[in-house]
From TrEMBL:
This is Sulfotransferase. Gene3D superfamilies: P-loop containing nucleotide triphosphate hydrolases (3.40.50.300). Residues 56-318 form the Sulfotransferase domain. It comes from Actinidia chinensis var. chinensis. It is an enzyme of class 2 (transferase).
């Protein structure tokens, strides 16, 4: 394990010198294979590309940051493990939503090592923020299933801007909304451009619908029961008639709701260790959890501008 980490570190140091860089949201961002990554994710990406193999039974949750990853994680985990845990003694009552299964972007970099990952029982539930195009064949051709979530980019921008200013260390001056807006529109955001991220997964979903389920935050907010049933079907664990009659779908939706999870002690005071040096307080993953809250923060010019980019980028894709 030590050896491949050293090799990656060496390649990473060399690569870093050659990549275009921009001032980003949490420090610098580097353009690697058409995607903007911070140094931490860049190293993680190189590790994944060179050393990670997924298994055909894996379920991989793909998303850009701030699109509803936390929520989807809890829904996937709770649905897949519904025969294992009772709601009164459920692991999510005491474990933050990001600690219930690993994110491959950070694996072997402190959160969890390759050996730990390989030791997990099948099927693996995994998450990633990497664009589909950055994932190696050992993942994309593994037979794993993907669940992708996306969200109105205006809400993504505001959620991201607020998140960054909460988690960045105090000595880093806060990023202003105008600056955040400009960077986001130029595609310079972690794992961005945001629109390309969505389109990359969408293309695969259209070509191989059995392999990818596309979910939208807004649809999940409006019709959580319908979307959760879709998710369970897709993951190969559909709800039985009996479960539906017993209200299991409603119970999972309620258990994973913003109101329930954000009020748990573990999510008010606990934190999630992403690597040896960095922990994020769980409460920062829960802010408002609403649709369209960005209109309170963005000017109408800003909103129009983002909508125009979305129209332009997604035109003809069937996404809008
Ligand atoms: P807001 O900042 O708009 O409130 P991610 O999990 O990908 O980081 O996304 C975070 C966004 O999802 C935040 O949006 C957060 O409040 C919202 N969120 C977190 N848990 C949620 C839940 N259980 N239901 C709905 N939204 C949730």
């Amino acid at each position: 394990e030590e050896e491949y980490l050293e090799e990656t570190q060496h390649n990473f140091n060399e690569k870093l010198q050659t990549l275009p860089r921009e001032r980003g949201w949490f420090g610098h961002l580097f353009r690697y294979q058409d995607c903007w990554l911070d140094t931490f994710s860049l190293k993680g990406c190189m590790l994944v590309q060179n050393h990670f193999r997924a298994r055909p039974t894996d379920i991989i949750l793909g998303s850009s940051m701030k699109t509803g990853t936390t929520w989807l994680r809890t829904l996937v985990f709770t649905t897949m493990n519904r025969f294992l845990y009772d709601f009164s003694s459920h692991p999510l009552l005491n474990t933050g939503p990001h600690s219930c299964f690993p994110c491959i972007d950070t694996y072997s970099m402190g959160e969890i090592g390759i050996k730990d990952l390989e030791a997990l029982p099948s099927p693996w539930l995994l998450a990633t923020h990497f664009p589909y195009t950055l994932l190696p064949e050992a993942v994309t051709a593994s037979g794993s299933k993907f669940v992708y979530i996306w969200r109105d980019p205006k809400d993504v921008l505001v959620s991201m801007w607020q998140f960054v200013n909460k988690i960045n260390p105090k000595e880093i001056p806060p990023i202003g909304l105008n600056e955040a807006f400009e960077l986001f529109c130029k595609g310079i955001s972690n794992f961005g451009p945001f629109w390309d991220h969505v389109l990359g997964y969408w293309k695969v979903c259209q070509e191989t619908p059995n392999k990818m389920l596309f979910l939208k935050y807004e649809d999940m907010k409006r019709e959580p029961l319908v979307e959760l049933k879709k998710l369970a079907d897709f993951m190969g664990h559909p709800f039985t008639m009996e479960e539906e009659k017993d209200g299991v779908v409603e119970k999972i939706v309620e258990f994973c709701s913003f109101e329930h999870l954000s009020n748990l002690e573990v999510n008010k005071t606990g934190s999630h260790q992403i690597n040896r040096d960095t922990a994020i307080e769980n409460r920062h993953f829960f802010r408002k959890g609403q649709i369209g809250e960005s209109k309170i923060h963005l000017t109408s010019e800003m909103m129009d501008c983002i909508d125009r980019i979305t129209q332009h980028k997604f035109n003809g894709s069937g996404l809008i």
